[in-house]
């Protein structure tokens, strides 16, 4: 294997799978940001085993990379399926009434738990992307009900970008504590 120019980065800059395009619309721009943060998050978890993914940050926090995968699956489902597509009556993922923090507390070092988390996250991302493919710039100001208040689709998409950006920052710190790798 050739020596890497940037051994502390996930990939060499020329091999980065995240593609920047020139979006031609508001929706395309927001979708590109969201897709890039999703890819970044996935890259930060790449190559880790179940124990590493489930490793908690610092007590008493329950945060782990695996917990973030489960949390982000729940967030994708809640916003894209329950709110934006109007299925609010469906239960939230990873959210039983007896442990609302189950996305994190249930993130245990078990390969089956890891496989399920990634499977559910990928399923929710694909479903969200399918719905996003039906949205145009004319829809961005359309409001949906969020806890009895109108919220434009644009604001929800911006929130999703913010959600991933925040958690990619958490993932940077978690990953660095596991094996010293820092992100790009």
TrEMBL record:
Protein name stated in the entry: DinB family protein
Organism superkingdom: Bacteria
Source organism: Solicola gregarius
SUPFAM superfamilies: DinB/YfiT-like putative metalloenzymes (SSF109854)
Residue stretches of biased makeup (Acidic residues): 11-22
Annotated stretches, region: Disordered: 1-22
InterPro entries associated with the record: DinB/YfiT-like (IPR034660), MST-like (IPR007061)
Pfam families documented for this protein: MST
